[in-house]
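pinging the channel bc i need a second pair of eyes. not urgent but kinda urgent?? the chain im working w is below, pasted from the shared doc
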Amino acid sequence: MGIIAWIVIGLVAGFIAKAIVPGKDPGGVIVTMLLGIVGGLLGGWLGKVIFGVDSIDGFFDLSTWIAAVVGSVIVLGVYHAVAGRGHSHHRGSHA
């Protein structure tokens, strides 16, 4: 697949991941879309490494989309944990 296809998959996967992962997104829409692209790539890589399947068969293959959404949920969850910890620590330092 080409880079444009990965961007489209990542954007959609990021949108779906945002709907699945609760909480306020500290980075906004642009950061969520970028995290979706990273998550899509991560999901494809994890599918190959962990399950030994080629989860990047094509743009219209269901396994490609599932891998992208799972990867996006992981990346968004990690981002929330890191960004949320930074925000709460920053607020407490003004005491």
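so Residues 89-93 have pLDDT under 50 and may be disordered. and The longest helix spans residues 62-92. — does that match what u expected or am i reading it wrong
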